[in-house]
């Protein structure tokens, strides 16, 4: 929400000071133009996120799931919006901020439903729109899937710029080198650390900088985007990361995930009346909970210690009314 606010604020700044024309907000032509413009900008946001390593470090979070369903759409990066807003600023030269704000949300919401394997083919719509069939290819780690089908709502940009690929072989989802963990902070940040370590293996400044600003597969002596010679061969028999853990642990994780979801809902609902310190505290608790649950799912040796610490934090927050217990009766023990 903070970064979306910064995005709109930057857009309004450019609109107020540098707009070339002022398209009427109540014209259908303005809305259609903005629809196409936002989708065109999204294509380049998305393409650069795959072709520039430092941007891929943020976007790889969305591709880290080895499953493909609606929850994959919710697997979003904490850092991608620090740079993605820049690509939309040219729109501020002509399109009113109110119209832009509607279309940037529409573009995002449209992409939720295409994360599914249930819809196989939509006939003639496949020629124009980004569909589940096209987006499955985008999420694949098969060689024919890599760096293809960047479109948001429309697939025409991929057809125009040569990045379209139809679905053929069975798609195997996830990163080329699966991370095999559910630890949320590692999933979000591990690639930045990888780039830093990799850059330190090179001696020249040019190669160090190229590590961050050329393609993720780039190596010295190769083209800007590198190649995929080192990629593991995809056979179609790959099995997603699925550590074995007991049914009671499954139940425990689900219950506490629902509890933290309740906390997040309360935070979102009351963000306008809460102090900044309370918002930071609750946000930290949500991150701590997701990290701890990830440790439990990974069966980490330190999971029990981290979870005990998290439970102490949870009870303390309930005791001082920073959190609501799931049931009123559960608040009684914390009052003693």
What would you say this structure looks like, in words?
Helix 2 crosses helix 6, helix 3 runs antiparallel to helix 9 and helix 12 runs antiparallel to helix 13. By secondary structure, this protein is an all-alpha fold. The two termini are 38 Å apart. Helices cover 53% and strands 0% of the residues. It is globular.
Write a brief structural summary.
The protein has helices at 2-18, 28-51, 53-63, 70-73, 81-84, 97-113, 132-138, 156-161, 184-199, 205-213, 247-269, 276-298, 303-319. It starts with a helix and ends in a 17-residue tail after the last helix. It is 53% helix and 0% strand.
Walk me through the topology.
Blueprint: H1 2-18, H2 28-51, H3 53-63, H4 70-73, H5 81-84, H6 97-113, H7 132-138, H8 156-161, H9 184-199, H10 205-213, H11 247-269, H12 276-298, H13 303-319
Q: Which structural category do the helix and sheet elements fall into?
A: mainly alpha
Percentage of residues in strands: under 5%
Count of distinct strands:
0
Largest sheet: none
Radius of gyration: 22 Å
Averaging pLDDT over every residue, what do you get? 92
The low-confidence runs, each spanning 5 or more residues with pLDDT under 50, are none
Overall spatial form: globular
| Helical percentage | 40-55%
CA-CA gap between termini: 38 Å
Give the helix tally.
13
Topology order in helix (H) and strand (E) letters: HHHHHHHHHHHHH
């Amino acid at each position: 929400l903070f970064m979306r606010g910064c995005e709109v604020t930057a857009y309004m700044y450019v609109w107020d000071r540098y707009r070339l024309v002022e398209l009427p907000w109540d014209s259908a032509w303005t809305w259609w133009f903005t629809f196409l413009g936002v989708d065109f900008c999204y294509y380049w946001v998305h393409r650069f996120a795959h072709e520039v390593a430092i941007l891929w470090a943020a976007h790889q979070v969305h591709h880290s799931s080895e499953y493909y369903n609606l929850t994959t759409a919710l697997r979003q990066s904490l850092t991608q919006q620090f740079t993605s807003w820049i690509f939309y600023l040219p729109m501020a030269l002509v399109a009113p901020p109110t119209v832009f704000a509607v279309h940037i949300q529409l573009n995002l919401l449209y992409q939720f439903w295409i994360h599914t394997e249930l819809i196989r083919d939509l006939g003639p719509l496949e020629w124009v729109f980004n569909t589940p069939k096209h987006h499955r290819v985008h999420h694949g780690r098969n060689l024919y899937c890599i760096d293809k089908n960047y479109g948001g709502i429309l697939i025409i940009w991929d057809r125009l710029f040569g990045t379209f690929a139809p679905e053929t072989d069975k798609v195997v989802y996830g990163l080329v080198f699966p991370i095999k963990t559910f630890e949320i902070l590692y999933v979000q940040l591990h690639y930045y650390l990888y780039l830093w370590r990799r850059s330190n293996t090179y001696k020249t400044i040019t190669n160090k900088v190229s590590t961050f600003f050329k393609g993720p597969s780039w190596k010295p002596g190769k083209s800007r985007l590198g190649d995929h010679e080192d990629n593991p061969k995809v056979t179609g028999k790959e099995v997603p990361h699925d550590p074995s853990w007991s049914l009671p642990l499954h139940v425990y994780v689900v219950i506490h995930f629902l509890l933290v979801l309740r906390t997040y809902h309360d935070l979102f609902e009351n963000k306008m009346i809460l102090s900044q310190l309370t918002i930071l505290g609750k946000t930290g608790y949500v991150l701590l909970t997701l990290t701890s649950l990830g440790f439990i799912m990974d069966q980490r040796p330190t999971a029990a210690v981290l979870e005990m610490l998290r439970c102490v934090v949870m009870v303390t927050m309930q005791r001082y009314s920073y959190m609501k217990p799931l049931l009123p009766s559960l608040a009684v023990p914390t009052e003693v």
